[in-house]
Amino acid sequence: MADDRIITALDVHSVEEMKTLVEILGDSISFYKVGMELFYSAGPEAVQYLKYKGKKVFLDLKLHDIPNTVDQSIRALTRLGADLMTLHGTGGRTMMETAAAAVRDEAARLSIPRPRLLAVTILTSMDDAGWQEIGGKYAVAETVAHLAKLAKEAGIDGTVSSPYEAGEIRRLNGEEFLIVTPGIRPVFAAANDQKRFTTPAQALQDGASYLVIGRPITQAAKPREAAEKILKEIQGGY
Q1: 142: pLDDT strictly greater than 80
Q2: Which residues are catalytic, by number?
Q3: What is the pTM for the complete model shown?
């Protein structure tokens, strides 16, 4: 029943909460995001539990540091067996090239499948006004497109970008490039703090590869019913 294009964000801060959600959602969800909140609280156990349960894992820690530090961090995280991992595209070409080489080398050394790396472009909580306030010279959409192009040139597998930029990234970087879109809100859900968001079916139609959906599922009165409702929405609408 699950659809790998849906990644449920486990924005909780304990292994117990995570396990409860995963058990409730059962076979309706096959892919989970482990972000900073859960990883900093529970550590590698969060990823290890999900892999034990046969789930795919998007490890979203958004690495952003000097190339050598990112190299060593990527190697350590590769050993956990996540399917997708993130770093900030604003770390620059050298940092991204170093990360791409490190993940390939470490996965080959361990004889395990290589995690795919995603460059975070501009956070979906950021709009043009907020971006300019911190010194952004160009509009968000233009900056996202530039970072996506740079990421591909640096050997990164895809980007994390808002659904508004998915179509342009797909046009620039081709069909094999991964596009993971947060800021997804089903028709029945509230926008919360996202400023650049759209519905699941629309995001897929615009070129997204994966959709990250958190609160509309995890904070629903009946999480499994919410997940199944979203699955019907994308399978019927796209």
Answers
A1: yes
A2: 62
A3: 0.92
